[in-house]
Specification:
The chain is an alpha+beta fold. Helix content is 41%, strand content 23%. Strands 1, 2, 3 and 4 form a four-stranded antiparallel beta sheet that branches. Strand 2 and strand 3 form a beta hairpin. Helix 1 packs across helix 3. The N and C termini lie far apart (72 Å).
């Protein structure tokens, strides 16, 4: 019974550690996508002007995500992580956004030697997407007195 109980404890500890590491990988993927959604493509802004979304390119999204990822410390039980194919600017439902695909290798704390011997490292791939919406307010219109009045009533 002791061996079964010990195996059960090892299993619970390892599964919990992997799940916590997985949650941290998903958190950083969300952070990277949110940061990348604000990665303004200045060249597009100057050519196309300001529309309802932040102008993005694959290069600005990938660059912003990479810089943020390099600055982030590896969480506990995460051995390594990297951006993978699919990271970049995309259009979903007619809306421009930033997609981040992050793959991480996870360390299994107690049974890690067994997992390594089997040759199957535990990896997690997180997909996250974010959009940055720009609200363009029309300029104030001159009122009857010649002074600018707000385009909407002030409450």
């Amino acid at each position: 019974y002791v061996a079964v109980l010990l195996a059960l404890v090892v299993l619970v500890v390892d599964v919990t550690a992997v799940q916590l590491a997985r949650a941290r990988v998903y958190d950083i993927a969300d952070t990277l996508a949110l940061d990348a959604a604000d990665a303004l493509a200045r060249s597009s802004l100057y050519v196309d002007g300001l529309t309802g979304t932040v102008p993005l390119t694959d290069e600005t999204v990938t660059g912003a995500a990479r810089r943020r990822l390099e600055a982030a410390p590896l969480p506990a039980h995460v051995l390594s992580w990297s951006l993978t194919d699919g990271t970049g600017a995309d259009v979903v439902g007619g809306r421009l956004g930033a997609t981040v695909v992050l793959t991480a290798r996870i360390d299994v704390p107690l049974a890690g030697g067994l997992v390594a011997a089997l040759g199957n490292p535990v990896s997690v791939t997180a997909h996250s997407r974010a959009e940055a919406v720009v609200r363009v307010t029309p300029p104030a219109q001159p009122g009857p007195s010649g002074r600018a009045t707000p385009s909407r009533p002030v409450q």
